[in-house]
Amino acid sequence: MTDRGALCLSFDNLGIDEASSAAGALPSLLRQLAEHGLAATFFAEGINAELNPETLRAIAAAGHEVAYHAWRHESWGDLSAAEQADNLARGVAAFKDLGIEINGLRPPGGQLGKGGVDLLHNSGLTYASPAGKGAGIEDKIALLPFQWKHVDATCMLPNLDPVRKQMTGSGDPIDPDTFTTYLGKEIEDNEQEGGFISIVLHLPLLAWLGEKNLATILSQLSTTPSWVARNDQVAEHVRAHPTRFASATTLDSTSWA
């Protein structure tokens, strides 16, 4: 990683059925990302290859990465190794049929579970984004973890009140303005300290976050001296320097599940 730090912006949960699809939020978001010159990673459930194929193609055509977030947002750590393998194979094949190559997985719930990185390696993926800290590498799989404090859903999920207490001193829900301010300080700290952080926003929560706060986050990312890149680009860097990133990741067992 560069001395100025690295940062990935990602968006999760395109939707697992027509009623919950967040595809309608995409045109505005893609336009704002283009205006700020930012490339992001979209972790989409595999079923969207059936529900929202044109949306997935639009994301890829705009220069963003499409990555895997289980078939129907199953809690990944609760699946057996065989179930994970079947789930991943189904998703990779479905995206491939759309002309989209999947390089990475973010396991819903944050845990890799029984399949571990062996499953990803055998499936031809190059990285995983579980819960944890510090970019690293294991069995040629880059680990690009996210910290729960950098996830918008942490502001409200009941099982994550201990994380909120670490963030603000209280386990109470966090409002969008407070989260945006907190995230801004974390971005500034990364500029000074280096290392890697992953910001995780959820498409269904963009309305909760609000246009003003989203614009604030995107504006800060577009001007930070840190390297802001897609997950697959950071994974390529990590895999190219395996000695430097060996044993550099600490996984976190905390989960919303």
Q: What is the string of SSEs from the N terminus onward?
A: EHEHHEHEHEEEEHHEHHEHHE
Radius of gyration in whole Å, from Cα? 17 Å
Report the helical percentage: 40-55%
CATH architecture, please?
Alpha-Beta Barrel
Helix count from the secondary structure assignment: 11
Largest sheet entry:
5 strands, parallel
CATH class reads: Alpha Beta
Tally of domains: 1
Q: Which regions contain 5 or more consecutive residues with pLDDT less than 50?
A: none
Strand content: 5-15%
Mean pLDDT comes to 95
How does the helix and strand content classify structurally? alpha/beta
Shape: globular
Number of strands: 11
The CATH homology group name? Glycoside hydrolase/deacetylase
Description of the molecule:
By secondary structure, the chain is an alpha/beta fold. It has a single domain (6-251), classed as TIM Barrel. The protein is built from eleven helices and eleven strands. Strands 1, 2, 3, 9 and 10 form a five-stranded parallel β-sheet that branches. Strands 4-5-8-7 form a four-stranded mixed β-sheet. Strand 7 (136-138) and strand 8 form a beta hairpin. The longest helix has 18 residues, at 176-193. The protein is globular and about 40 Å long. The model has no long low-confidence stretch (mean pLDDT 95).
Q: Which descriptors apply to this entry?
A:
single chain; 257 residues; alpha/beta; TIM Barrel; five-stranded parallel sheet; 11 helices; 15% strand
